[in-house]
Amino acid sequence: MNYKELFKDDNENINERYSLMLERINSFLEGSDGGTIDKDYDDYFKKTAAFIQLMDEWKNYVYSGGLDCSDIESLADWNLRLYEDIIEESGAYGRSYANPVFASSVLGNDYGPLLSLLYTEIRGCIIYAVEYRYTEITILLELFVEMLCIFEDGAHSVKEVKDTLYYYFSDYAEMMIDYRIRETLDPKLSFAADIIMESDLSDIRYLYKFGEYISDNEIKMARFLNGMTEEEIEKMAYTYTHGYEEGFKIAGIDLSKKKTVNIRYFIGQERMIKAAICQFRRMGLEPIIYRAPVSRINRRLSLRPGYTSTSANKQYDYDHRMDEAVFLNKAFVEKKISITRNAYESRKQLAKEYAGPAVVEVFGEKIFEPVNNKESIRLTDAQQKLSVYSRMECSKIVNEYIPQSEYSFTIIAYPLPEIGDNFPEIFDAIVKINTLDNDAYKRVQQCLIDELDKAVKVHVKGCGDNQTDMIVMMHDLENPDKETNFENCTADVNIPVGEVFTSPKLTGTHGVLNVSEVYLNELKYKNLKITFDNGKITDYTCDNFESEEENQAYIKENVLYNRDTLPIGEFAIGTNTTAYVLANRFDIVYKLPILIAEKMGPHFAVGDTCYSRGEELRLYNPDGKEIVAKDNECSLLRDTDPDNAYFDCHTDITIPYDELGYIKSVHEDGTEVEIIKDGRFVLAGCEMLNEPFNE
Q: For the chain, how far is it from start to end, CA to CA, in angstroms?
């Protein structure tokens, strides 16, 4: 869809308001508006106004076709000008009002974080300009002018600034939330898909059309894929799309009733994504490709669901992860829930036709270790509870219109060029890992399942400095000849191949889970230690920060998502020793995404089970046995106490083989059978899994 035409009427209607605001801002910069601002705040307003002038220039450049006719040097220069004050490597972030630390040092601890949030929201105009969404730009200019007037009259107060920000988000919540939901369901909003399908991908100038920050990662990835043959690209795309299709077959869901697939990927991978779109279309599926959310109102912490580029500065993302504290209260949450329901109700046919996400993850960036800056806006304890409530209520609405039992997904991952000079070798190795022999793994994993189905509990023990000591309780099998506790997971929805997993009983499951280093949702944890009793988290710590209070807050925020506890939703044994050996050979163990890392040792997931909200769907392993361990004591509450049945999160934590002393299957009569000992598989029938270690 031509976005210029899509928003033509809206833009014509808003043009007068836009012009008035721009005129007011220009007058302020020229000193002709007659207003004066206290010198403590003058620099902030002048620099933010200058950025708005740059946005106007950028908007006109895009509208006049500059992205189509400029040379790559000009495009790169524009990209630098737009993002230079937050780029980590430039050092400019330390002097940017996007940085709440710097903003507070100049504007004070009361005003600094609030005005930093305002500037951060205004930076969203970069994206709104390329998508011709001038209404969003105009209301941000109006917000800035309103704030300017507050400070010009000399009688400003923190309450007035907070109220102004609050009412901006509250007044425009319906517009912003509704549009976000629309772009996740409506294939007619085809901004990214049009760039992918209509651009000459051999000319990497197309990268700048997205409006996102373009780094060496995106440029080198695009050039690398352009160097591959068409056959190689088609095979990569097939691994991805075929896995998606297989997920529907395994779950017994009729894909022919679906019309759309959500593609999530990182900019630079367009050549493979274009091939995938063509393959999906042959399945009858149109792509929905929406970018990561722009406004704080639609964001959650520093997560970026949707298509995006590598971050210009992860500390910037982290510093603003809780900015919604400015507007998050009970009234706003109830309003958001109502808007969400109305948005899905008005698009219930689109929701019914949605088949689910097909995700391409990346890895290899420099590991990010965040700094907890006290100047960043934080959620209060009450707001944390509200945030959990809001997310859960909206999740219920989504599941009502898009039941998890009626859609599937797939996830695959590839390295970024930033991973190192041996990027081509690592990329080729990952392609091979993503296409390992499913049938061979299926047979070996069945040997593991046959033994584990005899267990009443499984004992997992670390070695060396690893303090893991977990007892995991298994569900009873009423008919072992026809039922199984573990799923034989091959490469369909979850690529690459390599795990058997179950939803364990919570009652009786207890112990300590410890891992020396782990990377979860793009954040690094050092010496992560979590204690469980009856399957639920009772204590947690890590060594990321000097104070125990900071360490616990870090885990609560980013693993428990501000809850007091979470249950174990999954216990699994990863079998992909090929991936583990490769990771060690290239020294990238702690750069791998959880998608691959979870296949490289036993892992526990905290949060929902793997079958969350789809427990009634009957699933079978390749041997014909039905998988019956899909519930735990929490999910069984879904009919009687739904608020405590689900948590809308699932975080896998893997113990690497070299930190593993043993895994033992413990039978009802006390018999113990070793599955893994000293990091090697010792169960009969699993010899194949040790071959990569020997190689």
A: 52
Domain-ending residue, one of 170, 204, 230: 170
The pTM of the full predicted model, rounded to 2 decimals, is 0.91
Under a CB-based contact definition with an 8 Å cutoff, are residues 535 and 475 in contact? no
Contact, 338 vs 238, CB < 8 A? no
Q: Are residues 166 and 279 in the same domain?
A: no
Strand order in the sheet with 487-489: 487-489, 499-502, 568-574, 602-607, 650-654
**Boundary (domain end) residue, out of 116, 137, 170:** 170
Q: By the 8 A CB rule, do 605 and 568 touch?
A: yes
Residues 223 and 130 in one domain: no
Distance CA 553, CA 538 (A): 14
User: What's the structural domain count of the chain?
Assistant: 3
- Note down the domain range covering 30: 3-170
Are residues 391 and 327 part of one domain?
Answer: yes
Quote the distance between the C-alpha of residue 453 and its chain's center: 34
pLDDT band at 38 (very low <50, low <70, confident <90, very high): confident
C-alpha angle 367/369/373, rounded to 5°? 150
Assess whether 155 and 49 both reside in one domain.
Answer: yes
Instruction: State the residue for tokens 């934590």.
Output: 653
Instruction: Supply the Cα-derived Rg of the chain in whole angstroms.
Output: 26
pLDDT at 595: 86
266 DSSP assignment: B
**Arithmetic mean of pLDDT over the chain:** 94
Strands of 474-608 (E only): list them: 483-484, 487-489, 499-502, 505-520, 523-533, 536-541, 568-574, 602-607
* pLDDT value at 34 more than 70: no
Question: Are 391 and 254 within one domain?
Answer: yes
